[in-house]
Design goal:
Blueprint: E1 2-7, H1 18-28, E2 32-37, E3 49-52, H2 54-59, H3 66-84, E4 89-93, H4 98-110, E5 114-118, H5 131-137, E6 143-146, H6 149-157, E7 165-167, H7 181-188, E8 197-201, H8 210-218, E9 226-230, H9 239-242, E10 252-256, H10 262-271, E11 274-277, H11 286-293, E12 298-301, E13 315-317, H12 323-334, H13 347-359
Parallel strand pairs: 1-2, 1-4, 2-3, 4-5, 5-6, 6-7, 8-9, 8-11, 9-10, 11-12, 12-13
Length: 360
């Protein structure tokens, strides 16, 4: 089966190694793939031909005027339509602009392509201006893949036909050796970082628990000396205010304010003794899988389907956790003996790929 895999964010960006793992799984079960994305560092562990779309890159560049970004998004899809002429199936991630996505989906259908959506985070769309457009897109897909039962229930509630929605659990990523601390600091351009270090990495949103983590780790009895915040801010909110530490605290706050390259991301994960995935809402997390791939424990909240990603050595907290609960959870993780997965080709990824190919 010939698959066109459309991921504007990037094969190694946005969802971490998710796309790399899934493309490899599709190939292992016999599919032939072409990938369209905005960035690719050439180190993907798969055979698929990668087409880098500079128009998609423009569409995702928040420094550009909105009209240029919209033109870039439509132009990126026009390039996809050319490639779709030789594909049986189009797999999409993240409907960034549902009104434009819906136009492209109809065009793919006219070319005779079947359509698959991987819906990582369906619920927040209800609060957005594009919510109704997103819902109108859902019936156009032949198959929608989610990572857990909560996500399935929510996307069916949005109008997705229930017989077209399947659950494929989030799998581990390939084991990655952490950089030694000195090399990690050099990669990120950081001075000495006091240990132990906790990290919040990725797209930084209010719902990632940044303010609550900082306030808890400033408190008496905190086991953490440094809080590392690495990634780009999303949304209109005051991240600087959330990170503003009290004058009397001993907590060091280190900020890496940029979208990181794969090596920079590896360095950031390497510096942390424990990773924080303290979401207010959500369904699955590439941050958790990436931390596990490097043998790092995670403190995560029991929201959506996140608990399905818990591994030995992690700590699971209720969404309404108290500061003392967080400090105790981190202290427990720091004592844990965590092993990285032996391989990223776990059955979860192969199950995902086999499920799509058998149902589509």
């Amino acid at each position: 089966m010939r698959i066109l895999y459309v991921e504007p964010i990037g094969v190694r960006g946005g969802m971490g190694h998710y796309n790399e793992a899934l493309v490899g799984a599709y190939e292992q079960v016999g599919a032939s793939l072409e990938v369209v994305t905005s960035s690719h560092d050439g180190s993907g562990d798969f055979r698929a031909k990668v087409h880098v779309s500079h128009l998609f890159r423009l569409a995702l560049d928040r420094s550009q005027p909105r009209v240029l970004r919209a033109i870039g998004y439509v132009g990126g899809y026009l390039g996809c339509l050319r490639l779709a002429r030789r594909a049986d199936v189009v797999v999409l991630h993240f409907l960034h602009r549902p009104a434009a996505d819906r136009w492209a989906l109809k065009a793919f259908r006219r070319l005779g392509c079947r359509l698959v959506l991987v819906a990582h985070d369906p619920q927040p769309v209800l609060a957005s201006q594009s919510g109704s457009a997103y819902q109108r897109c859902l019936p156009l897909f032949d198959l929608i893949v989610v990572h857990g039962p909560k996500a399935r229930a929510d996307i069916v509630a949005l109008g997705a036909p229930s017989d077209r929605v399947i659950v494929a659990p989030f799998g581990d990523y390939r084991a990655t050796t952490p950089l030694d601390p000195a090399a990690a600091r050099r990669t990120l351009g950081l001075p000495d970082v006091a240990q132990p270090t906790a990290a919040i990495i990725g797209n930084l949103k209010p719902g990632k628990g940044i303010r609550r983590a900082r306030e808890a780790l400033e408190g008496a009895g905190s086991p953490i000396r440094t809080l590392l915040i690495a990634g780009t801010k999303q949304g209109d909110w005051d991240l600087d205010d959330a990170l503003r530490a009290s004058e009397t605290t001993q907590l060091q706050i280190v900020r890496v304010d940029r979208r990181m390259s794969d090596m920079e991301e590896r360095a950031a994960y390497s510096l942390a003794d424990v990773h924080l995935a303290l979401y207010d809402s959500g369904y699955s997390s590439a941050v958790i899988a990436r931390a596990h791939s490097m043998g790092k424990p995670v403190v995560l909240t029991d929201v959506g389907d996140l608990a399905l990603q818990e591994r030995p050595g992690d700590a699971l907290l209720p969404a309404g956790y108290e500061a003392d609960q967080l400090r105790k959870a981190i202290a427990g993780c720091l004592k844990a003996d965590v092993e990285a997965p032996a391989t990223w080709d776990r059955e979860a990824w192969l199950y995902h790929a086999r499920s799509v190919l058998s149902r589509i």
